[in-house]
Amino acid sequence: MAKAKKKSTEGNHLLSLPTPIHKSVLLALFFVLLILSFKKGLFSGEQVSFEAPIYIWGICISLIFPIVVWGIFRNKSFYKERLSVIHLFIFLTPIAYAFALVTAASSHYSFFGLFIQIGYACCFLISITVSSSSRGARSLISIILGISYLVIIFGLANWFGDASFGGIFNWSEQPGYISNVYNDAVLNQGQDARLSSVFQYPNTYAALLLGVLFINLIIMTFNRHFLKPEFFSIPLVPIMISFILTGSRGAFVMLPILFIIVLILIKPLYQILLILYFAIAFVISVLISSFIFNKGIALQVDFNGAQAFLGWTVLIASSIVCAGLCILVRKYVQGHIQKKFLKWGDGKYSFLYIPIVVLSLGLVLVCLLFSNVGLRQLLPDNIEAKIAQINFNQNSVLTRGTFFEDALSLWKDYPITGAGGGAWKALYEVYQSTPYTSREAHSFYLQVLVESGLIGIISLFVVIACAFYHFIRSYRRKAEEDQVPYLGFFILVTALLLHSAIDFNMSFIIIGTILYLGLGGLFAGNELPPFKFQENLKMKNYIYPLTLLVGSIGFFILSVLYYTGSQQYATAKENALSGKPLNEIVSPLDQAISKQKHPEYLDLKLQVYLQLYSQTGNTQYKSDFSEMLENGQNLEPTYKLFTTRKFQLLMLDKNYDEAISLMENSLLLRPWDITAFEALASAYYQSGLANLNTPEDALINWNEGLNIESRIQSQAKELENLPDAQVQGRTFGITPDLALTIGQIHFYLGHYAQAEEYLKIRIDTKFDDNNDYEAALFYLATLAKQSKADSDLYDSLLNAQTVEQSLITSRLDDLTAQKAIE
Description:
By secondary structure, this protein is mainly alpha-helical. Among the domains are: 24-132 and 392-578, no CATH class; 172-390, no CATH class. The chain has 33 helices and two strands. Strands 1-2 form a two-stranded antiparallel sheet. A hairpin with a 6-residue loop joins strand 1 (186-187) and strand 2 (194-195). Helix 2 (48-74) runs parallel beside helix 5 (107-131) and helix 7 runs antiparallel to helix 19. The longest helix is centred in the middle third of the chain and has 36 residues, at 305-340.
């Protein structure tokens, strides 16, 4: 290691702000990230219910952003600094998403994707502003850590069965109900339980924990300008226990990779200290992991305050023991190591020796974990099972492989500009090779590729490469005390980017925000000189800040408009479900649509008008419906529910031939859509009923309806080629609703034994929808045709409250008297 004194960047405020304002920005960031983290991590699920909190995020970011503009404006030498040029790369990705609007599969979601990218660019610039000094960078890292600690405590509180903290918080999402736990903070129950905290997805939570763990270790190791190491040693066990409880195989694999990367970046002395701290926390965490796991799964089923207290006591005591051992290492071991064993520490390649040894030992440990069952038995049963299953021949790996292949097939049709934001959700059923259901491509990079094409993915890689290049070139030039926060940014960004290659972490806007704050921090740590062309660069100081200010105002206005629209839609939907007058449904809905042509807004209005037409027969409602549907399909040609609404209208008008044609075309587009097969069978069945007076035509339609079963079975044979370990996804076969239709056709054809077999599949004595009644009536009639009976089902049918008994008996008598069609 070079012993030349490195310069401190403590006073290097490129975008300097007065201290009170600087603190205000940091405080605002803290509360925005903390509060919005509890909105499911701002998951971008591409549904209205997920979007409203994201618009709040946009409002908050756009309110903080003008301070960035002021920081640039007041810095007279801004255009003479290297950062003024390289930070412009961040606008490449939003520009790529803007290009994607031209070839977008979805008008709304492509613009929504652009909206998010603009928000990320704002977060990046905010980070540059607050991180342009090492003190600001430390503050931002501290904020991210502080929020992470609270999320970890919250996750463990849910694991122990009560996150209400003495009844202060109610986590129920339904008014009038009380819940002491956050929905899906613990995913599944029993041996399959996995901790996910606010994200409701364990893998994403594990990716964040991975970064937080190593930042904690680095701060403990360097111990400069942060709180005392005693403080950062306390969270180590809760972090590691939470990491274990996520059960994320992908994160388990990424941990040693990140470990080696971090070791390479620090001095040999610090390498040894970090390894010791990690080993202490790891051993303690493994020793208590089975107890914590078993205690948690028991408390999920039957909460007991005393048992929860015991769980917390063991966890806290273990954390204190870990902290104590780390303090002893620092006090008695560090100096000894420094004096006796690190005379070779200043060699040119000395920083590689220990990582190579650790890598070798790590490989040995991995071999032991896979070969030594006794060693794995120290872990909780489900974690032991997950580690044993880490291989390429298991469902999650094979399914991801299918996702990736299908994503590449999608990209090949939109290679340059992509198919816009939400492309995967809009088009995955068109390109899927098996009948899975997944609105996520399970890879951040493939998601960017399909959404913004080569332009977008290259833009992303340019930003990442530029950030890493300037970090690596600047890291060694900094004084040691200034290296820590920027190394923290690097760890955080690397952890998220590594894991995001195999999962959809970036669909959580909070995670995306943290990533772009980290990237901004890496840019802000630049120590390289300006480019030569900047010496003669002349530019009005206000032009760029003014452009940013106008952009932030526009972003704020859009965020407010879209948020208001989402609330008006929510009001309209609630009024519709409550049976309110038409005006109280349509009025707020029209206001929402005037702000944003969201497909869900349009679909709700279509449902309202279709119901009105069904109830009144007024053709004006049909005309309005058709006009809205045409406009909606022009905006969202791939939105499947619009096809469903058109099918419903055709069936209502008894236009069965067009309905059949519509569903056949839909199946050409989405061949694995079993709901389209159900609709098609229903259309053939109803068309046959409409032609009872001409039995030949009825038989043609019904034979086509029955042929659907063989079409499905023939297509399902393709699934036999899947690896044994891979699950095909959703059911692709004879579903209950399809069985009902096939059974009804067999009934009219006089195939009563076959009809009985199919109809029995659909029997549901809850009688909470029309098909429940249809299945029961046809089943009882089929039995009667064979001189059989089912008195229990008959009694249940008569006792159902939603239909009068006289109507039931009359319909049953008619069916029993029905003659077979030949």
